[in-house]
Carbohydrate ABC transporter permease
Amino acid sequence: MTATTISAPPLRQRRVRSALKHTGLLIFVALMIYPLVWMVVSAFKPADQILTDPGLIPKDLTLDNFKDGWHALNRPFSVFFLNSLLVTIGSIVGNLFSCSLTAYALARLQFRMRKVYFAITLASVMLPFHVLVIPQYIFFSQFDLVNTYWPLLIPKFLATDAFFVFLMVQFIRTLPRELDRAAWIDGAGPFLTFWYVVLPLMRPALVTTTIFTFIWTWNDFFVPLIYLTRTQVFTVPVALNSMVDSETQSGVGMLFAMSLLSLLPILVFFAFAQKYLIRGIATTGLK
């Protein structure tokens, strides 16, 4: 019998397929980034040309949108940047502290109903946040905490972000239990074992938690909108929303200008932390 061989596609055919594939990908990328590019260009257009000229090549360039937008709400926009930074840093500290302790308890300690608690934690990931909005608001309003940052920070110190708890549990389970036993032999209790043995080895998971918390908290609009009603405590997303509500068509340019500035911390942070994000996701077993 003679074996039949399957000839490889001609070189010209492979090149045509590759060109079509890359052309399709470039068109898809162009469609995805067009709104962002249009926002950047519009931030430098005069206000009367933003909605009348949809092109990406501006006829005139101006920095008035940045100058006017910086003081649009009767105070420097840096105030809102500092407010967002304060909430973001507090949220990062809260998630790192509470989620790591909770994950260590669920992954290493033996206690009754441990699996039930872990199942409840995973189930809470699927629970829409909007279900909890009204009872949480009533709770914080009764303690007169509205128009403060406590409603935004207290849940972070109570391990309410179940996604990060799950991420850290998965990572801790990959660590050898012999390290814990060696610490126990040396007389260390659960907390010392966590602090000196497990926590230093959790760096990839901690970095991943830091990155996601920073991005999600900085961009969060819904929760601050509920609890913050005074201008001086606004975060950046709420301030941008107030700029839209309080201005007419002339405020569109200021909105785009300040939105562009609000993206810079995210882009800079992600540029420096990207390699740690990929490493952290890979080592926690999330594909």
Q: What stands out?
A: Residues 1-5 have pLDDT under 50 and may be disordered. The CA atoms of residues 68 and 231 lie 17 Å apart. Residues 251-283 form the longest helix (33 residues).
